[in-house]
Structure formats: structure tokens, C-alpha cells
Known about the structure:
Blueprint: H1 12-18, H2 20-23, E1 27-29, E2 40-43, H3 48-63, E3 68-72, H4 77-86, E4 91-95, H5 96-104, H6 112-123, E5 128-130, E6 140-145, H7 146-152, E7 166-170, H8 181-186, E8 193-197, H9 201-210, E9 216-219, E10 230-233, E11 245-250, H10 251-271, H11 274-285, H12 291-301
Parallel strand pairs: 2-3, 7-8
Antiparallel strand pairs: 1-3, 4-11, 5-11, 6-9, 6-10
Helix pairs in contact: 3-10, 3-12, 5-6, 11-12
Amino acid sequence: MGWTRNIRVAALVAVAALGLTACGGGDEKPAAPGKGGAPIVVASFNFTDSQILAEIYAQALEAKGYPVTRKLNLGSRELIYPSLKSGELQFIPEYQGSAIAAGFGKEPVKDAKGEHEQLAKLLEPNGVALLNYAPAEDKNTYIVKADLAKSKGLAKISDLKKLDKVVLAGGPECEKRLTCFKGLTDVYKLTNASFQTVQELGPRVQQLDSGAVTLIPVDSVSPLAGDAKYTALEDDLAMVPTENVVPAVNKKVLDERGPDFKAAVDAVSAKLTTEGMRGLNKRVDTDGETAADVAKDWLSQQGLR
């Protein structure tokens, strides 16, 4: 979930100056009636997985009687963080590794527990706390054609050294990223690897299917990562940090709402899995369902509403 998202940093100044509420950004719904007090402002980034997660947490809180206001599909982390730090946005499902790297410009420690501690310390001065992280991850994953994996014995990224040549297709930024092509050469020490710039995912998949390239990056929650046509290679040297979903919550909200609020949120996080999110994303991106509907179904199936 990191570098593959488009970042519009130029808008940062406008958002910071005007505030997200003032500029009317995102898909906003009115607060639900509940336990009283100001509504908890739940936000999301501008991609499917984040919107589904925000709906899941928002609906779970509403089911427990907490008032919620949604501000969804707002944009990238660079746009949202000023309002999260100011308290205008109070709850967002985050992704640990990317939050550390993109939100604070730090190098993630690359294990889930360590990243949780690292991110908590970075957010603390801004009055934002973390609750429990989920098993679910949305991280860069590298896929090859399943028939190639079977014929050449490819199960992990380091197995790529078995091939005569390896061509990785990705966006232009991938070439210099340690979590992408640079990781193949610097972390995995592949001397048989080359890079091809292919900006959009659709053409990348076409190149992979045709055999023009060897592997491409996708999000771990993408249906492609679980498609039988492809094999997702294990990142055995951990060039990509963990990206566990974690609720980042305004500290004042946590203090005001107390342990029942935390327990309600943690109960949701405990049930989230990468495979499960992959299925929910497919229902929205491929089947055309709404994030709100698939979130409602998931919560019902998990006994959380």
C-alpha cells in the first residue's frame, strides 16, 4: 500500500490552510444518533481498501451506539495528516509501514510489533494514539505467472536468481525504491534483473500475461494476489515493510470514550485478514457493490453488529 498510490503533495498547503471540513472534501454522511457527545470523525484515504475499512469501523461503532461522521475518499496521506494532527479528523485506518515512511519520512523497522511501537511514538506528540493492529496487511506484493513459478521452482523473491533474466515492470518511481526494483538489486543482489516502466496496472498485467515481463507489483489485498493464474512470491528478505492495518485515533477521543470504545475497535481489528479484505475489495472493484454494503455484510458475518 505505499508508493503505488498517487500523491498530490501540491494540495497540502490548501488543505492545511482551509481544513477538510471547510473545503467540503470527501463523501460525507451525517452523524448517527448514539451515546451522546460530538460525533467521532472517521476518515479514509482515496482508494477502495481504505474506504471499506473506514466503513467497517464506522458501522461497528454505530452498532455500539457511538455517533459517527464519515469523511471518506479524502486523498493521500500527505493531504490527510494535517487534519488528523489538528484533531479535525479523529479516526483513520492506517497502514503501519507506509505511515512511518510516507507520514514521517522514517525507515520502518519491518516487523509488525516493532512498527506499531515506532509509529505510536511518532504520532504521540500530535495527540494521536494507536489501537491494536490487525492481521490484515495491504502491502506491495510481487506476482509472477503461475506456470512460470511451477516450471522454475519460484516460491520466494530470492528464487528469481534461478532465471536467466528477470524483468520487473512498475511505475517510474519503482526503479529507485528499495521496496521495489532497487530492492531486487540491493537487497536480493540479483544481477539478472532489469526494469521496465509501465505506469498503469492494467498494462502491467498484460505485459506479465504475454511474458514480456517476469513480475509486477500489486497490493496484497488485490484480487490478483490471490488469482490462481499467478503466484505471489514470498518476500523472504523483507525488502517491503509490514503494512498491518491499525486504527489511528485522536487521543482526546480515546480518553473521552473510555475502554468500551477501545474494545469495540479492537474487536474489529482482530477479525480483519488480508484474504478477507481481498474478497471485499473484489466485491467493490469488480462486482460494483458499495463499500458501505460490503462492510455491513462483513460485520454481520463476524457477529459485530
